[in-house]
Design brief:
The structure holds two protein chains of two kinds. In chain A, 21% of the residues lie in helices and 44% in strands. Chain A has five helices and 21 strands. A twelve-stranded mixed beta sheet of chain A has the order 7-8-9-10-11-1-2-3-4-5-6-12, with helices on both faces. The N terminus of chain A is likely disordered. Chain B is mainly alpha-helical. The radius of gyration of chain B is 26 Å and the shape is elongated. The termini of chain B are far apart. Classes of the chains: A alpha+beta, B mainly alpha. Chains A and B meet through strand 1, strand 2, strand 3, strand 7 and strand 8 of A and helix 5, helix 6, helix 7, helix 8 and strand 2 of B.
Chain lengths: 340, 203
């Protein structure tokens, strides 16, 4: 009898709780419905995690990239030792290439050409991660989580960056759930077709190479010609150029005069002005050189998500390379003007 | 092995109707047979069953792998319809399929397993097509072709589908990757991406 009463009470209490829960969930529903802000805050946090995940972690793995029907692989190692960062990337297909990085210093060894190119880089981001400028990404892309998945044996969160206009491609990102490390990314065309895809096929956290071993390997340049790639900072305006108007979403992130082919003999004399534009996720490089009728033939190419346009403008030779649709590349071309 | 799953053609359907269906299937039906065959197909369940069986026989004759339990097509179609209803605006259909399938409740998941496999096959086929198409024809062709038509675009050196090796182009690619190093999510220091083969766009 008593037990029955208690049971009844318990049920009533439960009932009230149920109503309360329903009210609560209604309230949260109402609160979340218009609040795109809350969701994009979380999205922004994912972006932040992806930007910084690689910095403090030791890992090694194998990565495959496919673009325009061409597949290539690389072996990647990342080592942290105190405040020092080491990276070693070895190409597995095509011409052998070993790229070492110790903080800002990047050494690229080309065993076949017996050349090693050394370069100081201003901005270095640990691989793999999002660009520094991706803090602006949400201005041009809508980010949403589309589910969970597994990549290279790791649990990942899948995110979609959908462009807000048709000047850029969509990107799909797979971030490791605990660290936020970017394990896979796809570039998607306007119909959702995959233009380009990079993914770790295997990735292990922890140390394989010690920092010392990597450094030793990096310093082995016996028998190789050392070429220093000198990069001089400048601006489009100083070089006598201007963009009449801007391509929506894109901002200049660097402008340098640099040798184009450091590997070639006497390549240093052959410099070009390179201006890089970014919309937070995608990049466009604009190269300007003196026109040379013997070497320069107008053309347009498409490889995976990379579109390239080469054309003559008076005495100048313009090359635009971008991870954007050709229409966007053409906008850059149309806006570029020699200052009178 | 498959024979057990193939039903006999139902006998109640009149011989004439069956012959008409058979002729229709072979594309040999005379005009006076057509209307009768259509009527039978529409009104008579058994005629439809018959029609399906004939197709199944044809399929099995062509290849063992095509043999399937009757009703599979209907299940497939029903599943497809169900899925289509649930599908959000398909921005990237291939991507959405996997996570969403995972969310579906268990019983449902079992029901839809063949469906998911079929979707997987479609997705793979899609990728294959994209790859094969994108090799000879740049994916961005429509946009660029339109742009080229609009204004006098630069001349293109090679014909469509021709693969070339262009060291000069590679220099620009490398420079682009280097400055946007780490930038390109995809490519570590511009190393992974091979630019040995470049597809030149058709004029």
């Amino acid at each position: 009898m008593n037990g029955g009463l208690q049971h009844l009470r318990a049920r009533r209490r439960l009932g009230r709780f149920g109503v309360g829960a329903a009210l609560l969930s209604c309230a949260t529903l109402v609160a979340t419905l218009p609040a795109r802000g809350a969701e994009s805050l979380e999205a922004a946090q994912w972006l932040q995690r992806m930007r910084t995940a690689a910095a403090d972690r030791n890992y090694h793995g194998t990565m495959m990239t496919s673009a325009g029907g061409v597949v290539s692989g690389s072996r990647v190692s990342h080592v942290c030792s105190g405040s020092d960062r080491f990276e070693y990337i070895e190409s597995l297909d095509g011409q052998p290439r070993h790229q070492f990085r110790h903080n800002n210093l990047v050494l690229t060894k080309w065993p076949q050409a017996k050349v090693v190119v050394s370069e100081q880089q201003d901005v270095v981001t640990d691989f793999p991660s999002l660009p520094e400028t991706s803090t602006r990404a949400l201005e041009n892309y809508e980010l949403r989580a589309i589910g969970k998945d597994r990549v290279a044996g790791h649990e990942v969160e899948v995110l979609m960056l959908k462009p807000r206009d048709d000047l850029r491609y969509a990107q799909r990102l797979w971030a490791e759930r605990d660290s936020g490390l970017l394990l896979r990314s796809d570039m998607l065309g306007p119909k959702g077709e995959v233009l380009e895809s990079s993914t770790f096929t295997e990735l292990t956290f922890g140390v394989r190479h010690s920092a010392e071993a990597l450094l030793r390997k990096m310093k082995q340049v016996k028998g190789l010609r050392v070429v220093r790639s000198e990069v001089a900072r400048t601006t489009l305006k100083d070089q006598g150029w201007l963009l009449q108007g801007r391509v929506p979403g894109f901002e200049v992130i660097s402008c340098v005069r640099r040798p184009l082919d450091a590997v070639a003999e006497g390549g240093a004399a052959d410099t070009a002005l390179q201006t890089v534009f970014s919309d937070g996720m995608s990049h466009v490089s604009l190269f300007i050189e003196r026109y040379d009728a013997r070497r320069h033939k107008p053309m347009r190419t498409a490889l995976g998500a990379t579109n390239t346009l080469m054309n003559r403008q008076g005495d100048w030779w313009i090359t635009i390379v971008g991870d954007v649709p050709m229409a966007t590349v053409r906008q850059f071309e149309a806006l570029l003007q020699r200052k009178p | 092995m498959h024979n057990s799953s193939i039903p006999e053609a139902p006998r109640d359907t009149t011989r004439g109707a069956r012959e008409a269906l058979s002729a229709l299937m072979d594309g040999e039906a005379a005009s006076h047979q057509l209307q009768g065959a259509f009527d039978a197909w529409r009104s008579d369940d058994q005629a439809r069953q018959c029609w399906h069986t004939y197709h199944l026989i044809g399929d099995v004759l062509r290849s063992d792998e095509l043999a399937a339990v009757p009703g599979r097509d209907q299940t497939f179609l029903r599943g497809l319809r169900d899925r289509l209803v649930q599908e959000p605006v398909p921005f990237a259909p291939t991507a959405l399929a996997a996570p969403e399938a995972a969310v579906v409740s268990r019983g449902r998941a079992r029901l839809m397993a063949p469906m998911a496999i079929a979707a997987g096959v479609v997705a793979v086929a899609g990728v294959m097509v994209v790859l094969r198409v994108s090799t000879p024809v740049p994916v961005s062709l429509p946009a660029t072709a339109a742009a080229a038509a609009g204004q006098g675009g630069p001349d293109v050196v090679a014909v469509s589908g021709q693969l070339i090796r262009d060291a000069r182009l590679e220099r620009y690619f490398n420079a682009h990757r280097q400055v946007s190093n780490g930038v390109a999510v995809h490519v570590p220091g511009g190393v992974v991406r091979s630019v040995d083969t470049i597809v030149l766009e058709a004029k």
